[in-house]
Write a structure and sequence with these properties.
Blueprint lengths: L1 H11 L6 H6 L6 H12 L2 H13 L6 H23 L5 H8 L2 H35 L1 H5 L3 H41 L1
Amino acid sequence: MVLVGLISYRKTKGDVNTSEGYFLANRGLNGVFIAGSLLLTNLSSEQLIGLNGSAYGFNLSSMAWEVTAAFSTICMAFIFLPRYLGGAFTTLPEFLYNRFDDSVRRMTVLLFMVGYGLVTIPSVLYSGSIAVLMLFDLPSVLNVTYSQALIITIVSIGSVGALYAIFGGLKAVAVSDTLNGIGLLII
């Protein structure tokens, strides 16, 4: 994790001085980093732990989510991403605003913010924290209750992720996603 952080820092040092550098990685991400970021954005503790546990406990029907996500990611990479890049769009709401109108853009932003804030981020932080708690037996190590260890772990994981994004911008996230993806393939 420290190695990924150091490499990400070195690759992004000085690239976050402008808004285009911070939010768009100076429009300089190549296909490897875009693919790595697409892959690791879709893979998280929610999928690696939750879906496997659900398949083991019940059946493989929960895996239908990932099968359709793989199809969607391929469509994104080969159909939609070239249109976004060709039209110089920076966000999906900007694309929808150009295609439809401002009310569609506002609704999309609202849905994304609510969805990520209330569903995606909490479930990823929770499932990732459970994995860390079980792997390292943190309640015993820290000499705290399970609930306290869970809260400490959630805050720690959230803080590390936020620090990557806040201080490194999009390029740091894409580089770290790609490096973590390589590590995931090796392990």
